[in-house]
Amino acid sequence: MGSSPPVRRRRLGAELRTLREGKGLKQEASAERIGPGWDKSRVSRLEGGTLGIKADDLVKLLDLYGVEDQAKRDVLLALARAGARRGWWQTYKDIISPAYAELIALEADAKSLRSYQTLLIPGLLQTAAYARASISAINLASTPDQVNALVEVRQARQAVLSRPKPLEVWAIIHEAVLRATMGPGVMRDQCQRLLDLMELPHVSIQILPLDAPPHPGMAGGFTVLGFPESADLDVVHVEHLANALYVEDAADVSVYSSAFEHLRAHALPFDKSADLTARIKQEQS
């Protein structure tokens, strides 16, 4: 997955392929009608997500494919801009994987993030000490300098919570995560961090108790990223030890969204989640 094209570029390519096929055009015919500099290979790479596109060229394609709906045009233009933009995380390209860079880019573009975690506090909610402890444990081959840099990245990601239009985060965290042993004072401070975040209007945190009945989250953690252009562009991120999976098919994304709704119902209400977090914090003191 690490060498695959960026998610947003893949989505744009898939949309353009669907539009072209809807008009009954072959790739060669599309290239010929667009004009000089275009050929079948360029159309193919664009639709495959391996090539970006400038706004002017995209407008030509949309005109060719007869896309008159301004809302749809705006969505596709937004995808093109997102696919071409370089972010602050490019500075760390030597230490973060392409899949991780893609997650950071998606967080930067997203309007909402819904996360269920069974083993870790979500990265956007972690203290620096918690990040360091977890990164050191997971990245066994990393040097101290690399760990420091990865902690910097994780902390920098959290800027999406304080931007002018902050990312709307809804996190469901298994109680076992709060009871993990992470080092002296680490979980106490992390619990306080969660309590502080619970006060923010755009952050919702629920705790799934140890005695919760069987639920869809037993299959593992996941994150659903939602975008302002269209719900059809939502993406699911599933993290693995060495890499990550991005689920993009709308039907599959819907399965995860439904699972999250079930988990919300099984998790403690916000006030009881805060009470439990505070109690666990006291136990860590």
How would you describe what is shown here?
- The chain is α/β, with parallel strands linked by helices.
- It has 2 domains: about 5-85, Orthogonal Bundle (434 Repressor (Amino-terminal Domain)); about 95-285, Endonuclease, Chain A, CATH 3.30.870.
- The protein has helices spanning about 5-20, 25-35, 40-50, 55-65, 70-85, 100-110, 130-140, 145-155, 175-180, 185-195, 250-265, 270-285, and strands at about 110-115, 170-175, 205-210, 220-225, 235-240, 245.
- Strands 3-2-1-4-5-6 form a 6-stranded mixed sheet, with helices on both faces.
- β5 and β6 form a beta hairpin.
- α4 (about 55-65) packs antiparallel against α5 (about 70-85) and α10 packs antiparallel against α12.
**What is the CATH topology descriptor of the largest domain?**
Endonuclease, Chain A
Q: What is the number of beta strands?
A: 6
Mean pLDDT, all residues: 91
The amount of beta strand, in percent, is 5-15%
In helices, the fraction of residues equals 40-55%
Report Rg: 21 Å
Shape: elongated
Structural class call reads alpha/beta
Strand order of the largest sheet: 3-2-1-4-5-6
Tally of individual domains: 2
Looking at this protein, list some descriptive labels:
285 residues, alpha/beta, 434 Repressor (Amino-terminal Domain), 12 helices, 6 strands
What's the topology here?
Blueprint: H1 7-22, H2 27-34, H3 40-48, H4 55-64, H5 70-84, H6 98-109, E1 112-117, H7 128-138, H8 144-157, E2 168-174, H9 175-178, H10 186-197, E3 203-208, E4 222-226, E5 235-239, E6 244-247, H11 250-266, H12 270-284
Parallel strand pairs: 1-2, 2-3
Antiparallel strand pairs: 1-4, 4-5, 5-6
Helix pairs in contact: 1-3, 1-5, 2-3, 4-5, 7-8, 10-12
